[in-house]
From TrEMBL:
Catalyzes ATP-dependent phosphorylation of adenosylcobinamide and addition of GMP to adenosylcobinamide phosphate. It catalyses: adenosylcob(III)inamide + ATP = adenosylcob(III)inamide phosphate + ADP + H(+); adenosylcob(III)inamide + GTP = adenosylcob(III)inamide phosphate + GDP + H(+); adenosylcob(III)inamide phosphate + GTP + H(+) = adenosylcob(III)inamide-GDP + diphosphate. It comes from Sphingobium jiangsuense. This is Bifunctional adenosylcobalamin biosynthesis protein. Its EC number is 2.7.1.156, 2.7.7.62. Belongs to the CobU/CobP family. The active site is at 49 (gmp-histidine intermediate). One of its GO terms (biological process) is cobalamin biosynthetic process.
Length: 171
């Protein structure tokens, strides 16, 4: 099934673009959220995103078990939108999970998806080299996940200032 990977910087328009693409499929939309609300500001962000999606969207939270959630909720008549892989990587690190194994599971789930899947991630490698080991480890892990997902995806769009740039298009 076709997959779309939407990547870009913070506030680049990734989520809005991914949502619009999902809504144009005409399929039943399923949102898989990886965010966890640890503070009031994050709870407000999550609430805004939920309000932007509208009532036709079903939402499932999957801060860690993303591959299993994609397998469980994918269907030929449903488009699945995962937002976002960057938070998922952060969650895996905080939970001390094996990121390589989880990424392998994600790749398997995408390869066997029963319907279209749209994944969103931040491009974290465009800035300076972080000044501490944890931040460098995070940047490296997120970059590797992004590379693997981009290689698997049928289409990759890079967003900057709300504008998409096609990086890959398999037809």
């Amino acid at each position: 099934m076709p997959s779309l990977f939407v990547i870009g910087g913070a506030r680049s328009g990734k989520s809005r673009y991914a949502q619009e693409r999902a809504e144009t499929t005409g399929l039943s939309p399923m949102f898989i959220a990886t965010a966890q609300a640890y503070d009031d500001e994050m709870r407000e962000r999550i609430a805004r995103h939920q309000a932007d999606r509208g009532p036709e969207w079903q939402t499932v939270e999957a801060p860690l078990d993303l591959a299993q959630t994609i397998k469980a909720h994918g269907a030929p008549d449903r488009v699945v939108l995962v937002d976002c892989l960057t938070l998922w990587v952060s969650n895996l690190m905080l939970a001390e999970r094996d990121i390589a194994a989880a990424t392998g599971d994600l790749a398997e789930a995408l390869g066997g998806a029963k319907g279209p899947v749209i994944l969103v991630a931040n491009e974290v490698g465009l800035g300076i080299v972080p000044d501490n080991a944890l931040a460098r480890r995070f940047r490296d892990a997120a970059g590797i996940v992004n590379q693997k997902v981009a290689a698997l995806a049928d289409e990759v769009q890079f967003l900057a200032a709300g504008l998409p740039l096609t990086l890959k298009q398999n037809r």
